[in-house]
Amino acid sequence: MQPIFHRVMSTSTALGLLAGLGIAGGMGLPLGIASAEAQDELNVYSARHYEADDALFSGFTKETGIEVNIIEGSDEELVTRIVNEGANSPADVLITVDAGRLWRADQEGVFQPVESEVLEERIPANLRHPDGHWFGFSTRIRTLYYNPEIVDEPPQTYEDLAAPRFEGLVCIRSSSNIYNLSLMASLIEHHGAEKAEEWANGVVSNFARDPQGGDTDQIRGVASGECGVALANHYYYMRLVRSDDDADQEVVENTELVWANQEGRGAHQNVSGAGVLQNAPHKDAAVKFLEYLATDEAQAYFANGNNEYPAVESALDNPVLEEFGRPKLDDVNVSVYGENQPEAQMIFDRAGWK
């Protein structure tokens, strides 16, 4: 069956074609994107690259009759495109991952505030922008992992990663990675910049190797014994748990997960979110789409498609996530991850965190 939404061209491909035609910045209404007169269509720019998201777009069309056109790209590409298109932009909604990226987009002035009783009721206040510029629809938890054959006393908190007992044992991604920037931003919020920098220095001293690879690579490093402990978003591990591949199952068998800071503020959570764009030609449809993302049906797609926790807790319907439970979570407003991001990067740089 053909999808009832339209995946248009990726933005990198589109910009390349436009450049070849001598059209700078992706201006206008290229690639068959709907014009403002076609009120039964919605144009979504998405930096989420999960096949399971197709169900979100199809589900919205089935429920509303509004067809969805999708442009995909990195968050940087999409925000640049929206800014360059200006008042002529056909984009209605931007979807991306991590509150730090949503903050970056908001700094460019691309979002408009949305007032919706549905969203205010369904989405917890700490998972959305205080003024309604964007809303988080799923959560991802930064999680600790360890190899029980190497580590006798596993870490229980993020702060433990700087403890001397883990010297030469920590595997983690680069400091430029948005997930780590947001974690550091949360540490700044909770402890202040001075203590957060002490932590960064301690973690760097404990590196098992120079930062490299993605989150799954950190987990595999723990399983292989190259590292004793690591940090990665929970859904990467859940993918391995649900995998039929023997090598993935071996990684799971050799790795233990720890929900961090359960005796204190709770585990660091981040969001995948979306907002209505400043020049959205189909604002009403865009708000309807955001409200649809908060329904139990759509929330279940987030949980089952990418093993993310739904922002609406009652919508959780994923056996693997239910098996691991829903940990105590840090309830700080995730918008501070963006606000503290510049200072977080400076701290990482001073600590020599590559």
Describe this structure in words.
- Strands 1, 2, 3, 4, 5, 6, 7, 8, 9 and 10 form a 10-stranded mixed β-sheet that branches.
- The longest helix has 14 residues, at 178-191.
- The protein has 15 helices and 10 strands.
- The chain is globular and about 60 Å long.
- It has 2 domains: 6-139 and 270-319, 3-Layer(aba) Sandwich (D-Maltodextrin-Binding Protein, domain 2), CATH 3.40.190; 140-267 and 334-351, Periplasmic binding protein-like II (D-Maltodextrin-Binding Protein, domain 2).
- It has helices spanning 11-20, 54-64, 75-85, 99-107, 117-122, 178-191, 193-205, 215-224, 234-242, 246-253, 283-293, 296-306, 319-324, 336-339, 341-351, and strands spanning 6-7, 41-46, 67-72, 93-97, 135-146, 170-171, 229-233, 256-258, 269-276, 309-310.
- α7 (193-205) packs across α15 (341-351) and α8 packs across α10.
- The protein is 41% helix and 14% strand.
- The chain has 354 residues and is an alpha/beta fold.
Total beta-strand segments: 10
The chain-level structural class is alpha/beta
Mean pLDDT: 90
Q: Can you write the helix and strand succession as a string?
A: EHEHEHEHHEEHHHEHHEEHHEHHH
Portion of residues within helices: 40-55%
Low-confidence stretches: 11-37
Q: For the record, what is the CATH homologous superfamily label of the largest domain?
A: Periplasmic binding protein-like II
Biggest sheet features: 10 strands, mixed
State the end-to-end CA separation: 47 Å
CATH topology annotation of the largest domain: D-Maltodextrin-Binding Protein, domain 2
| Oligomer kind | single chain
Architecture of the largest domain, CATH level 2?
3-Layer(aba) Sandwich
General shape: globular
CATH class of the largest domain: Alpha Beta
